[in-house]
Task: inverse folding
């Protein structure tokens, strides 16, 4: 059961294998109540998250995207999350330029033991996405844009 | 039966609107419109600004032969009778609404005639193309003046060429004369917005003649000389000619006669579609084989194919016809101003570029 | 832009290289074209004027020869960036720098003369006089200059082995370099979205922008086209067009030298360089980094700091 009221939305989560995925697992094992809108994709490291993964999800209908990795200094591969931080910060600042609400994309750090922090992050993010509502779709048909021209 | 009709200047929009309500579904009268400072063919919608004073950057070929189209779509589902079996829902309906291209140029219409052969004069005529072709009426505007790069009369087309259109529309002093050239054209002339045109026929003929003369004076008569075979097969010639080419798709995608396509399947979980989309012989991927080998890896070879297809191979297949309408779009649209006209002239002369 | 000086330099340089890339007369006075000089008798055909817009450095990565290249300020940054990323070798290029007062946007000129065919053009210090069959028009260079030139910080090449002309100072102070981007950012989210959807709607996915871009080095392996990896379909739909432009912009993060070629090359007149300029503005703010200034720099996306002074942790709200 979702803890957030209303229709379930599509939120994609990219979680690193070593910390955040473990954190999500800890939250689950501890039976913390969490919203169910999130669809988790496990990646080896937050450094594996190409900013274009996020963009592709947002353009093609995701209502929110959450990326989470190990805290700085804790990366399993020592510096993957440092690269991720630069790329994702660049993306966060770029998205609004093309009219995508930057609030729909959040990146953060959660360790394997932080079940509580994970629960908070997911709940807060999901609540925010519900407030924002479904993402305005990017037309997938070829006809001229009525919406824009009107 | 009316064979010609007249429209006063300033009433273009009225006619477009009147035709729009006639087209089976609205939004199927396609007009060259200003979009920013670019002219492209678009459905005539409220708020669009038709622009006839210069040729559109891209041709209207997409109306009949869209840049991408779904040939069919499918969805897998469980057989309710037998859970072990999967059934397929297939949708292969072809949509082909009545469509009018309003304000094409003769080179645009010629382009469609050139593509027609490829999709109809074959053992497997193409139902998708032909269904739309059948439903499309082409209203062509006599070109008021040549643009940079135009060379239509050199390839047997011309600013007042009528053979590929349904209606010819010619701008005269205070209005336009419309001439029906086919049955589809006749139907257009019945539109009540149009007046009788008899009184203006003579003047229109003069304007058409003058437009043709002027073009011939500027770029020359039809050049029937064959290309020099030795030069055509000279690697050095093509390497020099292609030196600055960037290998993009602007020339082919803007060309009214290019018709090469690719077919790709897209599937997500339990549903998918087969897509046909334009392809371009100037792209490296065009001839890339599954083995990884590419018989046309060099841009010189790709340029040879583009020009060869239009000026040699197409004619070998279809009666010596040139598959270029001389519209000049590939020249104007090319980021490095590659001039197909001068490359072909050099090939015919037998000289190096 | 001193053509005599340039020819003189080319004459001295030519014996020591395989090819010199410069400009020659082209389609019309607004469209000179790149030319590849390999013998002294071709030197006289060289031209140099504000209509010479192409970034000739774009040819460098694919030419496996010793090459001399004519570059203006922004394009010299391209050479620097290419060397910096190891895409070309410094010892294989001779850089012929041309201090620049700004180049034309052919599109702006054509708009100003109602798209009449150009018969002739003459260039003065701050104006261009364009002759058509019907009229002669004098246009102030500032009114018809490429957008990139209006905020250019480096009109004199940042790297050159030979300089054809006197140094030119930037006319725009540093604060104003990103004023156009700030203005665009001042619009609402909906306005920005509508703007780009309308622009991208026109895109025909011809990839002229990508192929003209000197820093787009994936070439044949661009993920907008490959099936493996399979990033996008070949559908000509808005989401796919948008995706393609996001690929170009994001792959250029911290690498774009603002030469404006992508935008100039686009036959549909889509202002795609703006996307990259926005990212550059953020790169400068976040990391104090400008692409193509020093060969020894590292692009900001290829490196990191353990403590990032400018990146703060984001709150969800
Ligand atoms: S090849 Fe060029 S000039 Fe010929 S029809 Fe195509 S676009 Fe026009
Ligand atoms: S548009 Fe020009 S640069 Fe692009 S492939 Fe065609 S000829 Fe080459
Ligand atoms: S993205 Fe555009 S402005 Fe930047 S380097 Fe490439 S072509 Fe030049
Ligand atoms: S050059 Fe223009 S039309 Fe072609 S792909 Fe780039 S943005 Fe699209």
Result:
């Amino acid at each position: 059961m979702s803890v957030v009221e209303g229709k379930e939305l599509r939120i994609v989560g990219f979680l690193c294998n070593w910390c955040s995925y473990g954190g999500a697992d800890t939250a689950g094992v501890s039976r913390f109540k969490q919203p169910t809108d999130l669809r988790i994709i496990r990646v080896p490291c937050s450094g594996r998250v190409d900013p274009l993964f996020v963009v592709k999800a947002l353009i093609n209908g995701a209502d929110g995207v959450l990326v989470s990795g190990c805290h700085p200094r804790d990366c399993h591969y020592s510096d993957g999350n440092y690269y991720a931080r630069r790329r994702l910060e660049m993306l966060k600042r770029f998205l609004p330029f093309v009219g995508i609400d930057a609030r729909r994309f959040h990146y953060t750090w959660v360790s394997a033991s932080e079940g509580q922090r994970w629960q908070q992050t997911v709940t807060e993010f999901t609540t925010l996405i519900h407030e924002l509502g479904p993402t305005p779709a990017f037309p997938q048909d070829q006809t001229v844009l009525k919406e824009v021209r009107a | 039966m009316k064979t010609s009709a007249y429209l006063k200047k300033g009433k273009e929009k009225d006619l477009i609107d009147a035709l729009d309500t006639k087209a089976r579904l609205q939004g199927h009268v396609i007009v060259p419109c200003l979009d920013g400072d670019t002219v492209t063919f678009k459905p005539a919608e409220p708020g669009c600004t038709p622009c006839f004073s210069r040729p559109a950057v891209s041709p209207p070929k997409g109306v009949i032969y869209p840049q991408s189209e779904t040939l069919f779509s499918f969805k897998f589902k469980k057989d309710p009778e037998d859970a072990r079996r999967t059934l397929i829902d297939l949708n292969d309906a072809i949509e082909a609404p009545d469509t009018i291209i309003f304000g094409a140029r003769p080179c645009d219409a010629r382009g469609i005639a050139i593509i027609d052969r490829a999709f109809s004069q074959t053992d497997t005529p193409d139902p998708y193309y032909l269904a739309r072709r059948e439903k499309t009426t082409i209203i062509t505007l006599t070109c008021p003046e040549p643009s940079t790069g135009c060379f239509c009369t050199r390839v047997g087309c011309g600013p007042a060429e009528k053979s590929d259109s349904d209606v010819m529309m010619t701008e005269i002093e205070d209005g336009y004369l419309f001439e029906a050239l086919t049955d589809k054209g006749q139907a257009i002339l019945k539109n009540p917005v149009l007046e009788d045109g008899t009184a203006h026929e003579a003047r229109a003929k003069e304007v058409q003649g003058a437009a043709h003369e002027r073009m011939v004076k500027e770029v020359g008569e039809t050049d029937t000389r064959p290309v020099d075979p030795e030069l055509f097969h000279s690697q050095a010639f093509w390497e020099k000619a292609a030196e600055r080419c960037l290998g993009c798709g602007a020339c082919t995608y803007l060309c009214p006669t290019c018709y090469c396509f690719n077919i790709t399947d897209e599937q997500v979980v339990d549903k998918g579609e087969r897509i046909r989309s334009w392809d371009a012989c100037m792209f490296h991927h065009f001839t890339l084989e599954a083995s990884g080998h590419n018989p046309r890896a060099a841009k010189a070879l790709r340029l040879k194919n583009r020009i060869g297809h239009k000026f040699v191979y197409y004619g070998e297949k279809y009666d010596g016809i040139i598959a270029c309408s001389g519209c000049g779009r590939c020249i104007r649209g090319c980021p490095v101003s590659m001039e197909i006209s001068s490359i072909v002239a050099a090939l015919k002369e037998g000289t190096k570029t | 832009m001193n053509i005599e000086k340039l020819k003189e330099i080319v004459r001295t340089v030519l014996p020591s290289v395989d090819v010199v890339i410069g400009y020659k007369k082209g389609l019309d006075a607004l469209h000179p074209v790149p030319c590849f000089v390999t013998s002294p008798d071709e030197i006289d055909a060289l031209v140099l004027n504000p209509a010479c817009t192409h970034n000739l450095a774009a040819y460098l990565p694919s030419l496996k020869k010793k090459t001399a290249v004519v570059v203006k300020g922004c394009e010299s940054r391209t050479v620097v960036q290419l060397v910096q990323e190891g895409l070309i070798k410094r010892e294989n290029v001779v850089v012929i720098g041309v201090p620049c007062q700004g180049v034309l946007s052919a599109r702006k000129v054509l708009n100003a003369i109602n798209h009449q065919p150009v018969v002739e053009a003459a260039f003065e210090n701050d104006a261009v006089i364009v002759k058509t069959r019907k009229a002669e028009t004098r246009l102030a260079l500032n009114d018809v200059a490429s957008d990139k030139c209006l905020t250019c910080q480096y009109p004199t090449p940042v790297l050159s082995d030979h300089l054809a002309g006197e140094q030119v100072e930037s006319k725009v102070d540093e604060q104003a370099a990103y004023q156009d981007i700030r203005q665009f950012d001042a619009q609402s989210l909906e306005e920005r979205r509508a703007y780009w959807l309308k622009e991208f709607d026109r895109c025909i996915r011809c990839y002229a922008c990508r192929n003209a871009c000197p820093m787009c080095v994936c070439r044949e392996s661009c993920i907008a086209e490959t099936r493996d990896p399979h990033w996008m379909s070949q559908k000509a739909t808005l989401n796919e067009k948008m995706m393609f432009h996001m690929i170009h912009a994001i792959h250029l993060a911290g690498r774009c030298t603002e030469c404006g070629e992508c935008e100039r090359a686009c036959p549909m007149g889509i202002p795609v360089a703006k996307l990259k300029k926005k990212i550059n503005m953020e790169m400068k703010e976040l990391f104090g980094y400008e692409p193509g200034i020093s060969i020894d720099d590292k692009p900001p996306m290829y490196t990191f700091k353990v403590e990032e002074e400018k990146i703060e942790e984001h709150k969800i709200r």
